[in-house]
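Amino acid chain
________________
===
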Amino acid sequence: MGDQFDVMVPVRVDLSGGWTDVNPYCTDFGGEVVNFTINKFVKANINLSGEVSYNFDIPIGSGLGTSGSVNVARIALLRKSENLSLSEIAEAAYQAEIKSGNKCGRQDQWAATFGGFNRFMFHGENVEIMPFEPARSAVKWVKKHLIIAHTGISHKSGEIQDQVWSRYEAGDKEVIEGLHRIRHITRKLADSLQRDQRQLFVESLNGVSSAIDTIDKSINAPFLSVIQPLIEDSSVMAWKALGAGSGGCAAILCHPLHIKKVRGEISKSGWELIEWDYENTGIRMK
């Protein structure tokens, strides 16, 4: 496919709030996420027979919301004549993923459609796009210190989601408490970016990882053999599994004096460093 495409859709990095955008939690309590899109894309073409083909910068199962981007691209092409709004495209993409049997929230489809830095709130079936403008200095600082690395371990987010939500519906106190903590931390993380409070950002990102451990330790477990030694020697300030975790990508926030060391250790471990930049545009149609 090369650079020829009918639609191009970015993938996202979820900083905080993932899991709280999923029903039934967002119906019971409301959810909130902070994420941003990067310059890695799903590109799609449609032929005269109406068949859609895809080209991926990042594989499905990476934890970067690739399946959500696929559905956004598909809806944009197959329903182009309907002149859907961006919100309608995102909602239709979400419904398509649910109908395919993959339990998920709405953050991936909305991030892929709108692009840039986002703060979304979820109330049942409704999505509210919150005013959100991180400080330029904070955005630059995150870009300089945040490594995105792919473990090479593929995951199936639907299976992980089913495992967590079956416990939630059974009234598991640890799962419910972990989700509450994630939503509370998301507000702090959003504030840290808007005011460029870097220590608060570090604390918030660590808080998210800790809360995810409360929900299910298997989400973080595949990353720890590589990341834990770097935390212990203070080379890494904070980190989190991206998406549903249990493989795929991790976001790793490096100490300013140890960025080169962390990159070297990550590469030696066999993980793939993903060279990235911010992508401020969502869906692009030709």
